[in-house]
């Protein structure tokens, strides 16, 4: 579904992603790593928000690096960005609507998608008309996730979605992600809460200093000593 | 390195100060105008550093003009002293208005300052007996009897003063306060900065500078009228010069005013018809090709050469 | 500890946003030197409480006393200078400044130091929280560095009371542990700390006492062990699993 | 809940007060109301597109009024070379200005959007200068006019005799307002424009072509100015600086209405227009009319800031 | 070695541009005829951009860089006020065709090297009085008792309002040109279209209610046609409708609303019919530049050069004292339809023209009504009704 080949990304002179190759098939893939490893940068590059210096990115066989972000998104990739990127002066409902409005295969299913999102995050339904900018930190996070789900994506990218969510909702979120996964949506997930994250994915990469340090199924990763020590705190 | 910098600065100041000795009246005159815009530009930039886009420059300039000229006219005040009065008057008005308008932000602040300048103009135009109405008032003679050298030195001192104030803003805690306010007022507040106090302070200081510049200008020609004192030239040109030179710095407005000021004069002589078109094109080109102003571009070049020089040293 | 007068007293605090009551008639005290945890569901009013106490919002009703002094009418910068400081859940660095300069701002104005001493203090505080790259621009700082910077800024003003609003959200295990140690050190230096977190480990490790908020009201109070077993807390907040 | 209530009360009291004031003015100075409404609508018509670019593209367009000048000269040129009625020429001028806007956007504006804010100020300052001077070079500073007899037509109702032409400004302003609102509120593109105005990056992420929206909004704005240009030509003299005072007026209206509030611009325009006309009609004090304009503006902006100061 | 003339004009404005053209024309003609004192003329023009400090710097530039022998040119009073201190510094012979404000005159008191060709603002007012008195004699049906003045609120309009007030005050004392002419006077200001105004209906309504014999508006060329259109709109057609802008818009004559409008000016193309110099100038200008001279600053600019050259010829030297003497004696038959002679004004010693002409738009053209020596058409009175226009 998504294939990245020999990707190199720089910020000015700073080399952030080093010759990285990875794939996301019809599965859930985790991307773990310490702060500053380059996870967000990688996601931004996939989305065309950052231009790579070298390498290729394919989505469903089509090359997408070099395309404008909006085109990539319309191809069927939705994202939950780390920095939220909501429309602060629009209502919750409008924010959600916009998630679907510009994606061809989501527009027609708007109602259905609304119900789906409201079911996961009932608070969004209750706050339909509140301005997004006035929501609490966690509520905004939910809204961001909801907005991405509204796009009815084939690949859902989530950049640390659990940050700021209350424990019960985190658990539920990963549970729901698993269901979404089972409905045929591929998932690329970065997460600091590795323990929970592993539950929602099939396979994962450990990204350190812009390079892939480790790769394996979620079971393999959970059993790996390095992962245990640095990421699970065991 | 630092000493060398100091020396260069001193040399430039000395060169500027001694300009009348080696330049003829015409360059002198052009430079006097440039210095006027330089001081205005600096004052505008200082306000901008707090994040507040002010369109009141011409307004306070005009207030200063009127205050200076009228005190000389009616009270017989010494012209030099009257220029000071111009600054004080502008500062007082700014202080009083500041309480009402400094809670405004962004375009609301900008437009309100613009509107205030409009109010000043209407008042100046309609108080016929006191201000001379639309025709304005004229003094029997210009300051220093129009001696261009002394007028230059006067304007030079005003500009130099503005530079010093601007540097003071850059080198003291004021810089931290106003940069923080510009970036994020909530963070600034929470870090203990009294936002209103600083805004008021900067507003009053910059208005005072504008008032002094206005006073000096009025005395230079011994004449004041609403059209000349509140002309949008004194609003838009300094802004353009600052933006072209590079904002949030002392050097930017200085460079911008000198380059654009001299350039416009040169173009005028070179192309009597349509020189303003070329001027406009150059301004557009500056925006497109030097997004951080002339200063930003110079810095970039300097950085490049420095690393190249550094590289050579390493090779040795 | 119990005999000393409380450092913070909140009395019948109400904060409304239009029809929504974010903080609902809240009263509690914080003792000098304690680490208080504030937890509760998303939207419970934790950040709003922080905003009201630190002076960013005026309360709709109620009073706030800090070290026995009524500070309800004071502005945020005045409260900062008195010794209340806070971090921001949605981080708000000053983008044009380096990390060090960001921290200096609060040393300069919160603590009222001159440039030189402010710089020294900022360096000290940065070192204290474990910041290494002090002169980098904000855009190249990592989330961890930004979080640390938030803490450093809160400390540089020399506070008596700090609110740490989700400073450990989004950190991995190692980083969280490091941060917990930092907070312990802060507390050990005599600063009263109010921790807001959704990561229960942190709450468990750090706090002496926990307040659980829901819809702006306290639904439980006590040690972490106590509250975490209360059914209301489990159903409203923790969920079945933990 | 409480908020919506107080909000609702404000929403009724203000217009109510305004209507009472209007009736009073109408009784004492009926012509001031007519003239004020006519002029005010023109202000609003020209200010709306400016507010649109300001709110969505984030550009403080100092060349706004000069597009009006340009449009008027194009209409003038069309009139002189083909004899086409200036009102009909709107159908050519508005699309032409739309294209001009698009071209300028592509060549210049799009390049500044990524640069530091305020650079657009300098850019549009330069553009304004070029436009003014090119027009001056081609047509000289000498004013031009187009005479059509309907522009000075008048009607009488019960002893009132008033000009009818300038009501076209009101029609156009209301028309443009309604269309813009329909566009912004009820079309996908309009919503996208809203979103882009608030968070361009977020807009990209949801699949909005931000560049295209900017281009569209900027060009539409310039195009609307073309409508105003065609409407004013039969009624006003045009000269190279003809449009530039409208730039300032438009900023004022946009600020008075509050960013993003197009309907407010119409109200503000009418209020200021009537205020101006009122003072103009007071014998011996007409010179003070500008002070009403600025005074009302300052008052509204500051009062609003007090109301919204604490959350 | 050429004799150098340094001109300062606003080249971006039609007045300045055409004045500059006319000066070039005059210099070309004179040089073609062999120059003056055997030396060619050289004309150096600097744009003042209508900006006081630029205008002042231009004088410095001409004096020190170009080392000109004389200063000529001029338009705006505001610019000139800034130039006067500089001119005083050099004390070169200066012949000025612009700057009508009495404030300039005041600032020039005692400057004997200064020659001002354009009538001062107060002189214009006085001149009209003379004209109207003669018209009243010739056309007894004309009435000029109640006069309403609508003036633009800037310096230009206000100056003429104040001038009227002062002269009417004088007249009450039984002095000055207005004795016995205007019995009642009323003035009201408006905002000129040139500065973003352009709504005259309030003023026009006031005037209509007051019902004057003559209605005068003192504004700019941009006000001309909208003023007529709005007068028509409210149905205001006074017996005499006078416009007193410094210039007229390009298309004014094409509009039927222009018919019968009286105007004040120093020159009109119709003078060609009665003045050979005017005709020569007009044809030469059109031939040289492919456009019509549209403002009276064109013939004034032409006059500016010729006047100076006549003086030099008469003096036979460039020596200042002698030349001043010579200029005082010059009688130049100008394309403005009158002979230019220097005489003292209220303040300065060397004033040229003192009156403007009274003209009238007829069939899209400006016809001279007064002075009768150069009259080109009969006076249409009263102002034709609006119906059918
Ligand atoms: N705009 C930028 N300019 C310069 N450097 C940047 C920029 N954005 C990120 N970096 C640097 O690139 C590196 C990778 O950052 P990135 O945000 O991709 O990491 P991450 O793995 O997502 O970490 P986090 O957990 O903090 O989100 C970091 O060292 C950061 O300092
Ligand atoms: N300015 C505002 N206008 C309207 N409602 C607001 C505003 N600020 C906060 N709220 C609402 O008040 C409630 C409390 O918000 P607050 O940010 O205090 O929650 P929180 O406890 O910090 O939640 P989180 O854990 O998600 O950060 C939320 O429901 C939020 O939507
Ligand atoms: Mg990241
Ligand atoms: Mg919160």
What does this structure look like?
The complex is a heteropentamer of chains A (234), B (316), C (242), D (311) and E (389). Chain B is mainly alpha-helical and 316 residues long. Chain B is 80% helix and 1% strand. Chain B has helices at residues 2-17, 19-22, 25-48, 57-75, 79-101, 106-126, 128-131, 148-171, 173-183, 185-190, 195-221, 226-229, 233-245, 251-270, 275-289, 293-315, and strands spanning 137-138, 223-224. Chain B has a two-stranded antiparallel sheet. The relative contact order of chain B is 0.16. With 242 residues, chain C is α/β, with parallel strands linked by helices. In chain C, strand 4 (61-66) and strand 5 form a beta hairpin. In chain C, helix 3 (99-109) crosses helix 4 (115-129), helix 3 (99-109) runs parallel beside helix 5 (143-156) and helix 4 (115-129) packs across helix 5. The longest helix of chain C is centred in the C-terminal third of the chain and has 16 residues, at 173-188. Chain C is globular and about 50 Å long. In chain D, 59% of the residues are buried. In chain D, 75% of the residues lie in helices and 3% in strands. Chain D is globular and about 60 Å long. Chain D has one domain (30-307). Chain D contains twelve helices and two strands, in the order H-H-H-H-H-E-E-H-H-H-H-H-H-H. In chain E, the strands form three sheets. In chain E, strands 7-6-8-9-10-13-14 form a seven-stranded mixed β-sheet, with helices on both faces. Chain E has a five-stranded parallel β-sheet with strand order 2-1-3-4-5, sandwiched between helices. A two-stranded antiparallel sheet of chain E has the order 11-12. In chain E, helix 1 runs parallel beside helix 10, helix 5 (121-138) crosses helix 6 and helix 10 packs across helix 11 (320-329). Chain E has eleven helices and 14 strands. With 389 residues, chain E is of the alpha/beta class. The relative contact order of chain E is 0.15. In chain E, strand 4 (94-96), helix 4 and strand 5 form a beta-alpha-beta unit. Chain B binds chain D through residues 48, 53, 100-101, 103-104, 107-108, 110-112, 114-116, 118-119, 121-123, 125-126, 236, 239-240, 243-244, 247, 273-274, 276-277, 279-284, 286-288, 291-292, and chain D through 54, 60, 62, 108, 111-112, 114-116, 118-119, 121-123, 125-130, 132-134, 137, 248, 251-252, 254-256, 259, 287-288, 290-291, 293-295, 297-298, 301-302, 305-306, 309. The complex binds adenosine-5'-triphosphate (2 copies) and magnesium ion (MG) (2 copies). One adenosine-5'-triphosphate sits between chains A (11, 14, 16, 33, 35-41, 82) and C (139-143).
SSE inventory with pairings:
The complex is a heteropentamer of chains A (234), B (316), C (242), D (311) and E (389).
Chain C: E1 6-17, E2 20-31, E3 35-39, H1 46-54, E4 61-66, E5 69-70, H2 76-82, E6 84-86, H3 99-109, H4 115-129, H5 143-156, E7 161-165, H6 173-188, E8 192-196, H7 200-206, E9 209-214, E10 217-222, H8 224-228, H9 231-238
Helix pairs in contact in C: 3-4, 3-5, 4-5
Chain D: H1 2-28, H2 30-57, H3 64-82, H4 86-112, H5 119-139, E1 154-157, E2 160-163, H6 167-186, H7 188-198, H8 200-205, H9 210-232, H10 244-257, H11 262-280, H12 289-307
Antiparallel strand pairs in D: 1-2
Helix pairs in contact in D: 1-2, 2-6, 2-9, 2-10, 2-11, 3-4, 3-5, 3-9, 3-10, 4-9, 6-7, 6-9, 7-9, 10-11, 10-12, 11-12
Chain E: E1 3-9, H1 14-32, E2 41-47, H2 52-64, E3 70-73, H3 77-90, E4 94-96, H4 102-107, E5 114-116, H5 121-138, E6 146-152, H6 155-172, E7 184-190, H7 201-210, E8 214-218, H8 224-234, E9 240-243, E10 262-265, H9 276-289, H10 297-315, H11 320-329, E11 331-333, E12 339-341, E13 357-362, E14 365-370
Parallel strand pairs in E: 1-2, 1-3, 3-4, 4-5, 6-7, 6-8, 8-9, 9-10
Antiparallel strand pairs in E: 10-13, 11-12, 13-14
The structure holds adenosine-5'-triphosphate (2 copies) and magnesium ion (MG) (2 copies).
């Amino acid at each position: 579904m998504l294939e990245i080949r020999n990707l190199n990304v720089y910020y000015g002179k700073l080399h952030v992603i080093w010759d990285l190759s990875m794939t996301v098939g019809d599965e859930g893939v985790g991307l773990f790593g310490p702060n500053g490893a380059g996870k967000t940068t990688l996601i931004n590059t996939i989305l065309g928000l950052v231009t790579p210096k070298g390498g290729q990115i394919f989505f469903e066989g089509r090359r997408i690096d070099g395309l404008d972000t909006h085109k990539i998104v319309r191809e069927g990739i939705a994202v939950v960005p780390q920095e939220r990127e909501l429309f602060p002066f629009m209502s919750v409902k409008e924010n959600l609507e916009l998630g679907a409005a510009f994606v061809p295969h989501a527009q027609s299913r708007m109602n259905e998608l609304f119900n789906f999102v409201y079911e996961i995050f009932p608070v969004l339904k209750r706050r339909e008309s509140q301005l997004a900018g006035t929501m609490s930190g966690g509520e905004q996070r939910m809204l961001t996730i909801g907005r991405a789900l509204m796009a009815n994506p084939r690949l859902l990218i989530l950049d640390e979605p659990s940050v700021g969510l209350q424990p019960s909702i985190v658990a539920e979120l990963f549970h729901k992600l698993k269901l979404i996964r089972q409905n045929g949506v591929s998932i690329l997930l970065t997460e600091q809460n590795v323990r929970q994250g592993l539950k929602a994915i099939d396979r994962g990469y450990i990204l350190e200093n812009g390079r892939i340090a480790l790769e394996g199924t979620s079971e393999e990763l959970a059993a790996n000593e390095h992962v245990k020590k640095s990421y699970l705190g065991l | 390195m630092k000493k060398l910098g100091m020396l260069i600065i001193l040399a430039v100041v000395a060169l500027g100060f001694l300009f009348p000795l080696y330049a003829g009246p015409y360059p002198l005159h052009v430079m006097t105008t440039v210095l006027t815009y330089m001081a205005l530009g600096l004052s505008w930039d200082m306000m901008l550093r707090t994040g507040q886009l002010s369109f009141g420059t011409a307004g306070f300039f005009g207030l200063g003009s009127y205050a200076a000229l009228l005190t000389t006219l009616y009270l017989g005040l010494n012209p030099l002293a009257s220029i000071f009065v111009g600054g004080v008057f502008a500062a007082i008005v700014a202080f009083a208005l500041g309480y009402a308008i400094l809670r405004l932000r962004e375009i609301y602040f900008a437009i309100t300052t613009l509107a205030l300048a409009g109010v000043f103009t209407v008042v100046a135009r309609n108080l016929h007996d006191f201000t001379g109405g639309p025709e304005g008032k004229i003094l029997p003679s210009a300051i220093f009897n129009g001696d261009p050298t002394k007028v230059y030195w006067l304007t030079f001192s005003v500009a130099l003063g503005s530079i010093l104030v601007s540097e003071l803003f850059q080198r003291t805690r004021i810089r931290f306060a106003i940069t923080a306010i510009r970036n994020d007022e909530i963070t600034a507040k929470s870090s203990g900065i009294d936002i209103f106090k600083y805004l008021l302070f900067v507003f009053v200081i910059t208005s005072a500078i504008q008032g002094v510049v206005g006073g000096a200008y009025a005395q230079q020609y011994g004449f004041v009228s609403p059209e000349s004192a509140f002309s949008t030239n004194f609003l838009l040109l300094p802004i353009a010069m600052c933006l072209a030179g590079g904002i949030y710095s002392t050097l930017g407005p200085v460079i911008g005013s000198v380059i654009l000021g001299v350039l416009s004069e040169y173009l005028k002589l070179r192309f009597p018809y349509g020189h303003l078109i070329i001027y406009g094109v150059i301004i557009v080109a500056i925006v497109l090709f030097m997004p951080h102003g002339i200063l930003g571009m110079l810095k970039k070049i300097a950085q490049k050469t420095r690393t190249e020089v550094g590289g050579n040293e390493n090779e040795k | 500890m119990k005999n000393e007068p409380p450092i913070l007293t909140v009395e019948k605090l109400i904060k409304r946003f239009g029809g929504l009551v974010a903080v609902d008639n809240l009263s509690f005290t914080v003792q000098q030197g304690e680490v208080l945890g504030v937890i509760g569901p998303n939207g419970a009013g934790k950040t709003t409480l922080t905003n009201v106490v630190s002076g960013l919002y005026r309360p709709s009703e109620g009073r706030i006393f800090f070290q026995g002094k009524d500070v309800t009418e004071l502005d945020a910068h005045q409260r900062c200078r008195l010794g209340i400081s806070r971090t921001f859940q949605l981080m708000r660095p000053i983008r044009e400044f380096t990390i060090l300069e960001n921290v200096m701002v609060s040393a300069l104005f919160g603590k009222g130091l001159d440039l030189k001493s402010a710089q020294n203090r900022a360096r000290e505080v940065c070192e204290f929280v474990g910041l290494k790259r002090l002169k980098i621009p904000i855009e190249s700082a990592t989330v961890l560095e930004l979080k640390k910077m938030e803490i450093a800024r809160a400390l540089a003003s020399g506070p008596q009371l700090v609110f740490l609003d989700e400073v450990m959200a989004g950190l991995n295990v190692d980083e969280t542990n490091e941060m917990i140690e930092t907070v312990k050190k802060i507390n050990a230096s005599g600063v009263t700390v109010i921790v807001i977190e959704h990561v229960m480990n942190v709450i468990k490790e750090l706090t002496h006492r926990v307040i659980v908020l829901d819809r702006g009201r306290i639904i439980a109070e006590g040690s972490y062990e106590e509250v975490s077993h209360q059914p209301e807390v489990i159903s409203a907040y923790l969920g079945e699993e933990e | 809940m409480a908020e919506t209530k107080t909000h609702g009360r404000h929403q009724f009291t203000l217009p109510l007060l305004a209507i009472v004031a209007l009736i009073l003015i109408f009784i004492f100075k009926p012509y001031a109301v007519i003239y004020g409404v006519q002029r005010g609508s023109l202000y609003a018509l020209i200010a709306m597109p400016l507010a649109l670019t300001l709110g969505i593209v984030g550009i403080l367009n100092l060349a706004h009024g000069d597009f009006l000048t340009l449009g008027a000269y194009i209409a003038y040129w069309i009139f002189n070379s083909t004899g086409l009625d200036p009102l009909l020429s709107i159908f050519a001028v508005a699309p032409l200005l739309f294209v001009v806007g698009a071209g300028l956007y592509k060549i210049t504006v799009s390049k500044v959007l990524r640069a530091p804010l305020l650079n657009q100020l300098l850019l549009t300052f330069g553009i304004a200068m070029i436009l003014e001077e090119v027009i001056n070079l081609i047509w000289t500073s000498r004013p031009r006019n187009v005479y059509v007899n309907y522009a000075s037509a008048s009607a009488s109702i019960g002893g009132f005799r008033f000009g009818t032409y300038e009501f076209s400004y009101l029609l156009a302003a209301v028309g443009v307002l309604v269309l813009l609102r329909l566009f912004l509120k009820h079309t996908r593109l309009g919503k996208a424009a809203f979103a882009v105005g608030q968070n361009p990056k977020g807009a990209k992420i949801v699949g909005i072509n931000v560049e295209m929206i900017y281009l569209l909004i900027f060009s539409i704005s310039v195009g609307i100015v073309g409508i105003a240009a065609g409407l004013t030509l039969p009624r006003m003299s045009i000269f190279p600086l003809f449009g530039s005072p409208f730039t300032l007026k438009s900023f004022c209206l946009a600020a008075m209405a509050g960013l993003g509030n197009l309907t407010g611009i119409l109200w503000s325009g009418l209020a200021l227009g009537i205020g101006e006309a009122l003072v103009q009609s007071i014998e011996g004090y007409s010179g003070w009319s500008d002070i009403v304009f600025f005074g009302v503006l300052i008052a509204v902006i500051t009062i609003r800031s007090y109301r919204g100061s604490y959350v | 070695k050429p004799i150098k003339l340094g001109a300062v004009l606003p080249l971006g404005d039609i007045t300045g541009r055409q004045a500059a053209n006319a000066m070039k024309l005059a210099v070309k003609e004179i040089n073609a005829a062999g120059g003056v004192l055997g030396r060619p003329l050289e004309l150096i023009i600097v744009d003042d951009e209508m900006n006081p400090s630029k205008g002042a710097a231009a004088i410095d530039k001409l004096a020190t860089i170009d080392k000109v022998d004389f200063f000529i040119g001029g338009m705006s009073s505001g610019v000139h006020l800034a130039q006067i201190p500089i001119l005083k510094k050099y004390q070169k012979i200066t012949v000025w065709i612009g700057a009508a404000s009495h404030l300039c005159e005041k600032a020039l008191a005692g400057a004997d090297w200064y020659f001002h060709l354009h009538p001062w603002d107060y002189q214009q007012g006085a001149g009209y009085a003379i004209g109207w008195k003669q018209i009243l004699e010739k056309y007894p049906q004309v009435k000029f008792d109640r006069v309403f003045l609508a003036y633009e609120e800037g310096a230009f309009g206000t100056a003429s309002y104040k001038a009227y007030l002062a002269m009417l005050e004088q007249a009450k004392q039984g002095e000055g040109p207005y004795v016995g002419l205007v019995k009642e006077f009323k003035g009201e200001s408006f905002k000129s279209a040139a500065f973003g105004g352009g709504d005259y209906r309030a003023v026009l309504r006031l005037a209509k209610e007051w019902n004057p014999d003559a209605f005068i508006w003192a504004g700019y060329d941009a006000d001309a046609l909208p003023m007529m259109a709005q007068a028509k709109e409210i149905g205001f057609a006074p017996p005499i409708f006078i416009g007193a802008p410094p210039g007229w818009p390009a298309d004014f004559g094409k509009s039927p609303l222009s018919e019968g409008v009286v105007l004040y000016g120093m020159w009109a193309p119709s003078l060609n019919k009665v003045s050979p110099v005017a005709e020569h100038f007009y044809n030469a200008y059109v031939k040289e530049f492919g456009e019509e001279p549209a403002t009276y600053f064109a013939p004034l600019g032409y006059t500016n050069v010729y006047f100076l050259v006549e003086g030099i010829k008469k003096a036979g030297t460039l020596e200042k004292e002698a030349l001043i003497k010579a200029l005082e004696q010059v009688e130049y038959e100008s394309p403005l339809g009158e002979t230019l002679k220097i005489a003292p004004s209220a303040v300065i010693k060397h004033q040229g023209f003192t009156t403007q002409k009274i003209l009238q738009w007829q069939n899209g053209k400006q016809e001279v009504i007064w002075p009768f020596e150069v009259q080109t058409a009969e006076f249409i009175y009263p102002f034709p009704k609006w119906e059918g226009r």
